């Protein structure tokens, strides 16, 4: 059987938006385990947030943090050197994103240029982040340990999305939107980072002459670059039952269900056909 790679967003996809539980995805997760298919977590979350989740999932595969800001590849995953990787705490780390301090400075400039109220994670207390995310305080603290991506809220509905993006571009940066927050970041996204991993997995599978089959799951605009890279893109429903209207791709599969329920249904159905 050809190698299958699954790339997945977390919040609102594998994880329930409110409870952050993946229990509803148990059937598909067990199927991936039986198939030996790598489940690659691709999120706007920080490394500090994702490592405990990987332990709970018994996941030992590479993962992508902060909207493609960096790839963390457990040492020994690939039997060849990883270009531009540094070694850190048992990982080969490939950094793509812009340093967080630069993003914080740029957010202040954008706020002044637009004359609006932008609040990034760096402006908020841990208690405020916990309130906005619904996370316990200990997990909210992990969410503030940013390295490559600044989530923010816009408290001025009069500022158009295109103006916000233009102001970010003037700083040499760009904006995207996740399930809860806008994000300011550099020349990185989930698609760029995922494509790099796909290339290394293709090289690993080169002995049999077959490239891996790739599946991607997400629910928001910041997942579109990832979904555009895979063979089978799956768009998961939002909590209100809708699909993100800004994610439009050829051959897009629309999951029948919200969050991990839709994630589970769509993935098990697709794998049964492959």
Automatic annotation (TrEMBL):
Gene3D superfamilies: HAD superfamily/HAD-like, Putative mannosyl-3-phosphoglycerate phosphatase, domain 2. The keyword NADP does not apply. Keywords: Hydrolase, Magnesium, Metal-binding. CDD domains: HAD_Pase. InterPro entries: HAD-like_sf, HAD-SF-IIB-MPGP, HAD-SF_hydro_IIB, HAD_sf. It comes from the Bacteria. It is an enzyme of class 3 (hydrolase). One of its GO terms (molecular function) is mannosyl-3-phosphoglycerate phosphatase activity. Its EC number is 3.1.3.70, 3.1.3.85. This is Glucosyl-3-phosphoglycerate/mannosyl-3-phosphoglycerate phosphatase. It comes from Nitrospira defluvii. The lineage of its organism: Bacteria, Pseudomonadati, Nitrospirota, Nitrospiria, Nitrospirales. The gene is gpgP.
